[in-house]
Amino acid sequence: MTQATTVKEQARATTDETQELTDGFHLIIDALKLNGLTTIYGVPGIPITDFGRMAQAAGIRVLSFRHEQNAGYAAAIAGFLTKKPGVCLTVSAPGFLNGLTALAHATTNCFPMILISGSSEREIVDLQQGDYEEMDQLAVARPLCKAAFRVLHAADIGIGLARAIRAAVSGRPGGVYVDLPAKLFGQVLNADAARRSLVKVVDAAPAQIPAPSAVKRALDVLKSAKRPLIILGKGAAYAQADDAIKTLVEKSGVPFLPMSMAKGLLPDTHPQCAGAARSTVLKDSDVVMMIGARLNWLLSHGKGKTWGDAPKKFIQIDIEPKEMDSNVEIAAPVVGDIGSCVTALIEGMSGNWPLPPAEWTRAVMAKREENVAKMAPRLMNNNSPMDYHGALGVLRTVIKDRPEAFLVNEGANTLDLARGIIDIYRPRKRLDVGTWGVMGVGMGQAIAAAVETGKPVLAVEGDSAFGFCGMEVETICRYNLPVCVVVFNNGGIYRGTDVNSGGGSDPATTVFIKGARYDRIIEAFGGVGVLAETPDALRRAVEAAMDSGKPTLINAVIDPAAGSESGRIGNLNPQSALRKK
Ligand SMILES: Cc1ncc(C[n+]2csc(CCOP(=O)(O)OP(=O)(O)O)c2C)c(N)n1
Ligand SMILES: [Mg+2]
Hints:
Low-confidence stretches: none
Number of helices: 23
Bound molecules: thiamine diphosphate, magnesium ion
Largest sheet: 6 strands, parallel
Oligomer: single chain
Helix content: 40-55%
Strand order of the largest sheet: 3-2-4-5-7-6
């Protein structure tokens, strides 16, 4: 009997009523399927290799990556896109640690994710006797995620997974760790009792209705505004309350500013979108209503130069009560799930809700038009080597023509400039580095977006960012996913022009090999590689890739001098307190 048939037969046994016994392997599979978790992102190895095979044989889609961190980023973004926990599966110690970065990232970004790792024998780990890949994984994971559980008995698999699912998706979503010691997989138990031990989670993320008094207070503050602003965060995108959010924004007539991953909730081309007038609206507004957005570093903590001198009142809508007053005073906290809160606000707005003063909305729109007009000619340049604007002008049109496609984006200049230049037209179509500004999320996100939705993906990657996850182009080719990766090759981190000020033969710390042929990497795996040196060549190559759906990597050669240090956040670099001589 071949191994493949053994696995298939074992899988069949999971659903065969006449079998008397089952085991941990099958019970985990049954528990996942019962709860609609039918995709796993991971890397095989002891003790989960057979588990992966059996899961695949039982109809779960198991995507094998080249590194767990990328599988983890895929699971994290799958959670964002689907509101179900994305599942990442790893081996013990090193595999677990590789996945843990992504779990912490999911928690920071409030994405529901479950990291399931096999672990070594408890008796040996706890006595520190040096088991294969020994590590007290549960203890390591606990401070980095929302919840962490270990299942020791197969009879507890059902309840363990139920707890993990609830922890991941209820309230403010986050990452959950589930530790499965090797011995658990092989434990045998009566099939009937096993079936009864499974738990189908009912109403995993219950609605959290805001207090009517909080809703009224928020509306009173909003009504009093002379220069109101709405900020949409990725929590608003996650909520999938797209129609309600659109209604609230349009009924209120208030200019809105989308945070990066909230772009497209309403199209960036919407008449109320203040994306191109960001500094004006942050400075001059007097009432700011935040919907699923936090006043963290990305919004300069709600104070300082960015926010100007005009006194501000904040209304904040968030599911997490502790978010209120995190950085500045919140005049009107509204605690509840975004969908329920926004619906309650709409209901509380009378039929003749006053629009904001026209003087304000006109000033915002004038600023926006001015900035858009200033940018327009730069986006049409056909320079070679390309600058960021010439290349991004092309990609902007590609997405305009294909609003259903995903835009994945990471890098420094490549990120900051693409965020401003490429308009997004539909909710949850822009996926990027998130709260941490982490490099390396790109390929995992591209893979998950394609796997979860079947839609085409354009991944716009700085050459450094791509280096953190580039080996996954093999994964993209192996699963034949409709992903077009464009590497913005400026030969370095921020720029490719630095020189070693020590004068030695080592290159500077921020520069890479000149003239690197990233396009040849994908050719090694049967994908399409293209070298693009002009905006016209880039346009042709991207359009062909997006229309064919063939895995493609385009090496877009960018002027090494075009970028700026740290993109738009150079101000965060520490400066010596010593005066420069
Ligand atoms: C995991 C991680 N390591 C390091 C960094 C620091 N970092 C910020 S941006 C960046 C790379 C920027 O270069 P590139 O992706 O080539 O974009 P460019 O500015 O050149 O367009 C790095 C290494 C980070 N954000 N995340
Ligand atoms: Mg670069």
